[in-house]
Amino acid sequence: MYLMTGTLVGFGVGVTLVAAIADYVFRDEHAIGMSLGLVVAAAGLMAAGLLHAAMKRPDKDWD
Asked: What is the pLDDT of residues 17-43, one digit of tens each?
């Protein structure tokens, strides 16, 4: 269920966000590569931040 939800949200939001950035930020419909790179970089940073926030400190776990 988690995988299905993540996939549907990713396909729905990801594609729309790439197209919106190409149209409204770069103002060029041929800038799909740059907008895709921007979305992937932002998603990667957000994923790294969420992973860092979710991790527990190892020295606290052993006590």
From this structure: 999 999 999 998 899 999 999 999 999
